[in-house]
Design goal:
By secondary structure, the protein is an alpha+beta fold. The strands form two sheets. Strands 1-2-8-5-6 form a five-stranded antiparallel beta sheet, with no helix packed on it. The chain has a three-stranded mixed beta sheet with strand order 3-4-7, with no helix packed on it. A hairpin with a 2-residue loop joins β1 and β2. The radius of gyration is 36 Å and the shape is elongated.
Length: 445
């Protein structure tokens, strides 16, 4: 026999069940393990970090807000705060923009799927492995670092490198320093008398492959002639200021005749080091310009103090642009094509369709990608720790790295480390609240 149901059609309060059809006590028992785990792994660490941030280094003395004051007064931690701002603004924006460009450009391309796969592949690499890869990419030596190998190749295409870096005369040679890395003859030269321009300090690998044994031009004539050569022979021996049989000419060396500060003639040494200047050079001094001896271009110091943060951000974009591209491509596939076609029928070109139709329709997806990457970069640690050398780690410092440095090591200060962790939490909360509001707004549509 069943109990009578009131006219209103609802069961008595004692017989009500939860939405899931189970009793609240049973539901609570099932949720209890998850709640305990959440409390032990999330709630308790957060509460303890907040509590520890108000105590000194030993943990026994109450420091009040002293640790928080140190965050904004210590130069190293301030640099980390500023770098985090750069990261939050630059990295998500660039990665999202590249993802948008890749997704749009490959939408109608036959091999677009293969391209997307290649761009997304770095996501399968751990931060540790990516850091090691880019530490090698940014090597200063062009023979090892890919970035500088490309940069030096482009530079040397438009600006010829020096032929004899480090070459110099000895005190007994007829040359002296003239400023700007140049050398000039100690005495004016005369036509008909061969001029000798000896240098030392050129390593054998630096000599041109087609350099020939140095030769002395014959005396006489109205022109100024001479020899520029390496006054050193492999294995030693030879005479100072004299052209010996085993000594090589400095092929390609530029020689200028200078009178009253003006260049009146220019010549280039042949494979045997000989050169000829017109009669106008008679009575002038010969100068070897500094361009002959400047150090070769070794590229950009990517991991120097000024470029280390953009360099690390570049490695992050390399990893996460594929993530942004995949999400945006998924959103792009769901756009109503009739709106795009209607815009084209109305006379809009592709740029106008992209800017005024595609991007506004993709705004929710772009917001998801931006917010996700912003939360991600706030806790960036691995790439900075691995890529930035120890000498510039202070310049590349970020809050997550500073949290590690302040919390561990011989001079660890857990109070400051806890304060930094609380600051990171406070920075993440507004982004999370924005994301929650956006999700709720989308759910109401």
């Amino acid at each position: 026999m069943t109990a009578a149901v009131p006219a209103g059609g609802t069961a008595p309060p004692a017989q009500r069940r939860s939405v899931t059809g189970t009793r609240k006590l049973v539901a609570a028992l099932f949720l209890l393990p998850a709640l305990l785990l959440l409390g032990a792994l999330v709630v308790y660490p957060i509460g303890y970090s907040v509590h520890r941030s108000f105590f000194d280094q030993s943990g026994e003395g109450f420091a009040g807000f002293g640790n928080y004051v140190e965050i904004f007064t210590d130069d190293t931690i301030l640099t980390a705060v500023k770098n985090n701002m750069v990261w939050v603004v630059l990295a998500p924006t660039v990665a999202t923009a590249l993802g948008l460009i890749f997704a749009v450009l490959t939408e109608r391309v036959r091999w677009g799927t293969a391209f997307k796969l290649i761009v997304f592949m770095p996501m399968a690499i751990s931060m540790l492995a990516a850091g090691i890869i880019f530490r090698l990419v940014y090597e200063q030596d062009p023979d090892r670092g890919v970035a500088n190998a490309v940069w030096v190749g482009v530079h040397d295409t438009f600006a010829e490198s020096a032929g004899y870096p480090g070459a110099r005369p000895l005190a007994a040679h007829p040359l002296r320093a003239a400023g700007g890395g140049a050398f000039v003859t100690k005495e004016p030269v005369r036509a008909g008398t061969p001029v000798r321009l000896p240098l030392v300090g050129v390593a054998a690998p630096r000599m041109p492959d087609d350099a020939r044994p140095a030769a002395v031009p014959p005396a006489g004539g109205a022109e100024v002639t001479g020899t520029a050569w390496l006054d050193f022979a492999k294995g030693g021996g030879g005479r100072l200021n004299a052209v010996d049989a085993r000594e090589l000419g400095l092929k390609g060396l530029t020689i200028e005749a200078v009178r009253d500060g003006a260049v009146v003639a220019t010549a280039t040494a042949a494979a045997d080091g000989t050169f000829t200047l017109p009669p106008e050079a008679d009575g002038a001094r010969l100068r070897l310009p500094g361009e002959n001896f400047r150090e070769p271009y070794n590229g950009v110091d990517w991991l120097g103090p000024s470029l280390v943060t953009p360099a690390v951000i570049g490695s992050y974009v390399w990893m996460w642009a594929g993530f942004a591209m995949v999400l945006i491509a998924a959103g792009l596939a769901g756009l109503p094509r009739e709106l795009l076609e209607a815009a084209r029928v109305d006379g809009a070109n592709e740029w106008q369709v992209f800017r005024r139709v595609t991007v506004p329709l993709l705004a929710p997806v772009l917001a998801v990608v931006l917010v996700t990457l912003m939360i991600n970069v706030l806790k960036i640690f691995d790439l900075v720790f691995i890529i930035a050398p120890g000498s510039v780690q202070d310049d590349a410092n970020v809050l997550a790295l500073q949290l590690y440095r302040s919390s561990f090591g011989t001079d660890a200060h857990l109070g400051v480390g806890s304060a930094i962790s609380v600051l990171l939490l406070l920075l993440v909360i507004p982004v999370m609240l924005f994301n929650i509001r956006r999700i709720r707004k989308e759910a109401r549509r």
